[in-house]
């Protein structure tokens, strides 16, 4: 009698265990499907890293005065895997730099913010950094940028992911109050009562950032955010061969609250960039 009861209990437990396993499998499968769908629906992205090809070429645009713009001239990049043209870069020539000159000229020498002007922007950039760090920590976002780096740069997945990881940690480090701590000032006692000399960390105003091809994400983001933290208005030029990575990163930063007018993003050759710098100087 005890043996019959025991067998029934074992069968009941086995049935419940099988049902539980089947439910878990279905839940796991549903979560995977959601994850796959979400990779193709990142709220900031305009391309799919895995989908860029000769039949579905990506476009890289310019950003000036808060607006994304195309150009009359396109620089076509070929896929290093098969030689097909797979990325079109809207390049600005010498006749198209005036909007960039005007944009940089609007920024005063004392910058967009400084210790006396709009100090709340230090906290704004702390919030932007926190949100961007959170986004890059999401597996689907980090995988997106890792794959995108691989499409234009000869790196292994681990090497490309290293760029994303370092960038994410940098942004994490400058979250919250850390940005305004960068602007910490000092005071030195004078010769008599009431006399002091004060030193302040001050922005340059309009600045330019030109970065190489070998680190498409890490170098531009670290240099760009450092300039923005201190109140500068940068124009960013990345090597056109890899500029799609930073273009998508700019869109992520906008999604995280970066004011669109704070940064200009230009694709051009060296001669055009030199002309732009000479015009602003």
Automatic annotation (TrEMBL):
- Belongs to which family? Belongs to the aldehyde dehydrogenase family.
**GO terms under cellular component:** mitochondrion
**Single GO BP term:** L-proline catabolic process to L-glutamate
Q: What is this protein called?
A: Delta-1-pyrroline-5-carboxylate dehydrogenase 12A1, mitochondrial-like
Quote the InterPro entries the UniProt record gives.
Ald_DH/histidinol_DH, Ald_DH_N, Aldehyde_DH_dom, ALDH7A1-like
Entry's SUPFAM superfamilies? ALDH-like
| Pfam (any one) | Aldedh
Q: Does the keyword NAD apply?
A: yes
Entry keyword set: NAD, Oxidoreductase
Q: Which GO terms describe its molecular function?
A: aldehyde dehydrogenase (NAD+) activity; L-glutamate gamma-semialdehyde dehydrogenase activity
Source organism per entry reads Gossypium australe
- Supply the Gene3D superfamilies for this chain: Aldehyde Dehydrogenase, Chain A, domain 1 (3.40.605.10)
Domain of life of the organism encoding this protein: Eukaryota
